[in-house]
Amino acid sequence: MNDAKPLHTARKSASERVAAIVTSFRPEPSLVEYCALLAEQVSAIIVVDDGSGPAADEVLAALAAAGVQIERQPENAGIANAINRGYEAMAAHDPELVITFDQDSKVTPGFVEALVAQYDLSVAAGLRVGMVAPEYFAGFKQTQMPQRNGYLEAYQPIQSGLVMPFKVIRDLGPQRGDYFIDSVDTEYYLRAIRAGYASVCAPGLDMPHSLGHKLHVRVLGRTLMNKQGNPRSISVSSPFRYYYRIRNRMVLNREYLSLASHRSLMLRDTFREYLHYCFALYCCRGKLSLVSVLWAGCRAGRKHRMGKIPDAVAARSRRVSWRNPA
Known about the structure:
By secondary structure, the chain is of the alpha/beta class. It folds into two domains: 14-207, Spore Coat Polysaccharide Biosynthesis Protein SpsA, Chain A, CATH 3.90.550.10; 213-322, no CATH class. Helices cover 39% and strands 19% of the residues. The chain has helices spanning 14-17, 30-39, 57-65, 79-90, 111-124, 166-172, 184-194, 241-256, 263-283, 287-303, 311-317; strands at 18-24, 44-49, 69-72, 97-101, 129-137, 140-141, 162-165, 198-207, 213-216, 218-219, 222-223, 233-236, 284-285, 321-322. The radius of gyration is 21 Å and the shape is globular. The chain starts with 13 loop residues before the first helix and ends with a strand.
């Protein structure tokens, strides 16, 4: 009888190596379905509800009954603090890898496995991997950097659908809760790059997602068309988010423009961001109200006033609406 032991043991599957954090705010019942699909691909799911209150009780109870761990923030404290709460709760699971999602992210079959496979390939190639993202997010490329050792290097990947080793999260520390929302994932990406970690993409992989409000582009009463003969459209944010977008962009640039490898890209992105504000102003009703929201964000950025949008500014943002919805 041969009692020799095998030379190696089988490696854990992707689903055993990854645990998920899902953030929610006033979640729809569809979150129960989305978590059921995700549960087939990960070892554990933690849903962090960001202060939805009693309105979320039914959905969260259904998730808990399905075996999802629920963490509830006492008040709305922003996406970064919700993810940080998830990181704290994840310590009890101590997974090798953590993947984060928004509440409206619906994973496709094999999604997590593809990210883990790219992580393994990149580590085997000698990269010090901090993040692995799908190449596409809602059809938009998440790589604008040159290939690194034959692998696609991610650029400013969105946090939904992003895999990170838990040891890297512990090394980098919590996300910037004072950003509240917008540029949170960009700041974490730049922090990882500055710490010497690589950010890579899984080629061809897409994270389906809805990007804000889509508007048709109209000039002089005519809708502009693209080369395919379809109406041109742009995506805009909810009006209140422009306070965070401009404030956090200013703070981000102040901290990370010293990162020589990314300076030109950050300056390009800043130009595009300010150009987007011009488009948003052109496409909105209540232009003076949106100008006041942007100006309040500028003042806050200059004075480094962080945290949640002031109530008065939030009230002005509610006077803004979008013309020509797609």
